[in-house]
Amino acid sequence: MSAKRILVGVLAVALLAPLGARAQSAPLPYGAPVTGDVARKAAAAALTEGKKNGWFVAAAVVDTGGVLVHFERLEGTQNGSSEVAFAKARTSALFRRPSKAFEDAVAGGKTSYVTLPGALALEGGLPIVVDGKIVGAIGVSGATSVQDGQCAKAGVDAIAPAAK
Predict the structure, then answer these.
(1) DSSP code per residue over 116-134
(2) CB count in 10 Å sphere of residue 112
């Protein structure tokens, strides 16, 4: 499976499951949960992206139910980023969309979204999509939201060959 195919899947989640009062299309279905080996590979790639850029980040990978499958952080990462990475991953898995969708909604004036149970309105959480199904999600925290998103994307991109 190509990185482009996974990226298209992530983008489809964002486009097919819009936030707000507009009519919603059916979101992508859940698939079999992400394996430990794939979760470790995704987290390692996210941390490598952070380290390459001098960012101290933590990465969490969850299954389709938001249960932690794997967690890692770079030495020197602030302690609070561990919980935030997990929350971003859970948000993405439970709501079947990037956590940035919530950040964008709040920035667009939908401030009530910050009160949704289990939703964290910060970029850095991405669904892991394989063959058109969500198998889990990755969350990254420790740098800016945009930088966290860049690291999460590196994690998703790294598992393309292993996720078959």
Answers:
(1) STT---SS-EEEEEETTEE
(2) 9
Q: Could you tell me which of 70, 80, 61 has the C-alpha nearest to residue 142? A: 80
pTM of the model: 0.83
Residue type at position 45: A
- Residue 154 pLDDT > 90: yes
Rounded Cα–Cα distance for residues 33 and 37 (Å) = 12
Segment (H or E) for 92: helix 80-95
Interatomic CA distance for residues 83 and 70, integer angstroms: 13
Domains with residue ranges and CATH for the chain: 3-19+30-158 (3.30.450.150)
Q: How confident is the model at residue 47 (pLDDT cuts 50, 70, 90)?
A: very high
- Mean pLDDT throughout 83-100? 97
Radius of gyration of the chain (CA): 14
